[in-house]
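Report of the visiting student (M.T.), summer placement. My assignment was to run the structure pipeline on a short list of targets and document each run. The first record concerns Enoyl-CoA hydratase.
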Amino acid sequence: MLGLKSYRFGRNLAKSIPSFLSRSCTTTPESTGTDQEMANSHPEEPIVVEKENNITLIGINRPKVRNAIDSITGRKLSAAIAEFENDPKADVGVLHGIGGSFCSGYDLSELAGQQEPQQALSIVHHPEGVMGPTRRMIRKPLVCAITGYCVAGGLELALMCDLRVMEENAVLGFFNRRFGVPLIDGGTVRLPALIGLSRALDLILTGRTVTAKEALDIGLVNRVVAVGAGLGQAYNLAMSIAKYPQLCIRHDREAAYYGTFSAKSFEQALEREAANVTVELLQEAKEGADKFRQGIGRGGSFSGIKERKLPDWERAEMKHESKL
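After the run finished, the structure tokens were exported:
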């Protein structure tokens, strides 16, 4: 019986390993061979979307320019994130870079090639943002896997996400400061809210490099992981969110953002928090309370909090085991 359980666990584990992790998407500042193979598999697509269970992975795929984003790529990223938000089967997203770096910012070669200032201004004034949908709140949790270079507008993209997982040798900084390119994708708005105005001004005005250790110390990132583990650990973090009832997650997340950025007073934030409770949310809470009464989740265990649909092969093996 023990042998069968071990065998079944091994099969279950093998089937549950996401295909993107098996490709070993290592991300040092210089691309590795296996990482380059991933980029080569989608040579014409600047944005690559993959789905694993209820997690959506959105990859920036312009490795030859360290994933710098031009206006076309920015619009495609906006479309990919909107599709993730509207997908009823997707609960959490992971934003990452393919080919060694997360994102080196806006593609300055596009700006340098603009002959008419009005044409450049039309790109800047795109309603959603230049780098992606950076001028609005994403409706579902989004985790950022920071690898290699995450600088200038790329750092603004990372700030757009809810949580950030950073590899220990990755590089952060507003390097656009060196070239006189302003922050126009939410960096000046989100960063002070995350780490405080004084620290934010230090990074914004100097454009200096920020190491992983400092980023973790000041609250700019949430996790620091080993080189090559960024995407995998970001996926694990996304899974730790996706396992919970999602209506409650989205309500609490929206209330936190509203209280931080939009509420005019403490009282208004509290009023919005209560006013956004719906019948559907209360039904989800009731189901959770029923599970608690049954003993599920007590003693710090989270097994059984969210029901998991078993594949046919696993159901068949469990049925077979029960007869032994």
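The chain has 15 helices and eight strands. The CA atoms of residues 18 and 24 lie 11 Å apart. I thank the supervising group for their guidance throughout the placement.
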